[in-house]
Write a structure and sequence with these properties.
Layout: H1 5-16, H2 19-24, E1 33-34, E2 38-44, E3 49-56, E4 62-68, E5 73-80, H3 85-93
Antiparallel strand pairs: 1-2, 2-3, 3-4, 4-5
C-alpha cells in the first residue's frame, strides 16, 4: 500500500482553501486516489469533468494536471504554492468569467 502522507496533506490544503469550492467541483471523496507524491481527484465541475492530479514536485511546489475521463491531458499548471491550489484549480475547472461582475 502506498504512503498516503503527501496525498492527505494535499487534501487538507485544498480543503483549507475552501470546502465550498471543493463541493462545487463535485469531488467524489470516496474516489480519491493517492500516490507517494500526488493526489488525484475525480471531479464533475462546470468547465471540466475528469480528473485533477496534484503532484508535489522536487522544488516543494505543486504541479496540477487536468485530465479527461478518456485520459487526455487537457492542461498542466506548474509551480504552485499550497495556498494557491484551491483558487487556481477553481478558476480552471469551475469558474465562469462571464458570471463575474
Amino acid at each position: 500500500m502506498a504512503d498516503m502522507t503527501v496525498a492527505n496533506t494535499i487534501w487538507q490544503q485544498l480543503k483549507a482553501g475552501g470546502v465550498i469550492k471543493l463541493m462545487s467541483w463535485g469531488v467524489e471523496t470516496k474516489k480519491l486516489v493517492g500516490d507517494v507524491d500526488s493526489l488525484t481527484l475525480r471531479v464533475h465541475a462546470r468547465r471540466h469533468k475528469g480528473f485533477v492530479k496534484v503532484t508535489l514536485n522536487s522544488m516543494d511546489l505543486y504541479d496540477v494536471k487536468l485530465i479527461s475521463f478518456g485520459g487526455e491531458l487537457k492542461k498542466e499548471i506548474n509551480g504552485l504554492y499550497f495556498d494557491q491550489l484551491t483558487e487556481v484549480i477553481d478558476s480552471e475547472i469551475e469558474d465562469v468569467p462571464q458570471y463575474k461582475r
